[in-house]
Amino acid sequence: MQRWQGLDDVPGDWGSSVVTVGVFDGVHRGHQRIVSGAAGAGADLGLPVVVITFDPHPAEVIHPGSHPPLLCTTRRRARLLAGLGAEAVCVLPFTHEFSQLGPDEFVRAVLMDRLHARRVVVGENFRFGHRAAGDVALLAELGEKYDFAAVGVPVVIGSRVVERAAAAVRTIRAAVPGASASGYENGEAVARAERVVLAVPFAGLAGFLGRARDALAGKLVIDVVVPLSVRDGFVALAAADGAASAGELIQQALPAARVVSAFKNLPAQRLGDLAAPLEGDVVLCGNDDAARAEVAALVGLLPGLRAVDAGGIANARYLEATTALLLNLNRRYGARASIAILGLPEP
Description:
alpha/beta, Rossmann fold, 38% helix, 15 strands
C-alpha cells in the first residue's frame, strides 16, 4: 500500500483509478461499506483504489475547537483502509486555502489532474467544495463533464437464498460496471444496512417482519409493497389484514423502525430500464418527518423524479389504491404511466 502526503507525492506516471473521499476517522462500519464498494468497483474495472483522506480534520480548520479528538492517527487509518482494499492512501493537508476551492476546482485539482479518476465512490451525504456547496448530484454532473462516474449510495441486496442475491449483484454490475453492490442472505443484508428498501412479496411480508423486527429497530425502512390481486385482467387492491394499507401494517409490525412508503406509483419496468428517462412524482408517506426528508434526498439523486411529502403513513392507503389504478391504465393502453401532481408550491 502506498501512502502519499499530499498530491505532490502521487507518482507522475500514475494512471486511471477508482477514488473514494472522506475523513474516515476510526474506519467504522459505514466507512467500511464505502471503501469496500470502491474496492469492488476497482476489481470490476481492473483499476487501483485510492482513498483520499484529510489531516487535520476539516472541521478543525473551518470551526476550530468544534471537533472531538480523532479516534486514530492517519498512519493507523491508512493501515485500516489498506485492509479494506485500498492500494494507495493520499493524505491531503486541509488548509484554509484548500477549503476555498469550489466544487469544480476540487474535482479538477484533486480527482482528475493527478489521480485520473474513472469512478468516484462516496457516501450519500458526501459534500465537497467551498462551504460544502457540492453534493452527490453535483458530483455526478461534474462526472459527465470530466468523464468519470460517481457512485453515492452503496447497495446491499438481500434474499432468502444468498445465491439469488449474488445473481442480482451480477446483473447490477453488468448494467453498471463498477457499481458498489454486494449480496447477502436477508438477515445479514439487514444487519449491514442503515436504510432498508422493503420489496418483499405481500404474501411473505408478515413472516419477514416477524423475523426481522428486532434487526430493523431504529432503521429507515422504505416500503414499496403494494398488496394486489388480479381477476379477469382487472387489478384490484387486496386487503392488508389488520391495517388499511401495507405501509400502515409495516409500521404497526415495526414500531421502533422509521417507515416511509415510497416509489409505489413508479412502474418497476421503468425503474429497471436504465436507458429510459425517469419522470413523475414520488409520493412519500410516513410518521417521521426526518425519515421522509431522508427519503426525499434519495429521490433527489434520481434525475427526472420529484419527491412529494404527503405526511403521515395513513396516506399510504390512497397511494396503494392509485397503484392499482395505474396498473389498469397501463394494461389498457400498453403504457408505463406514473403520476405527477400539479399545482404544488415550489420547494
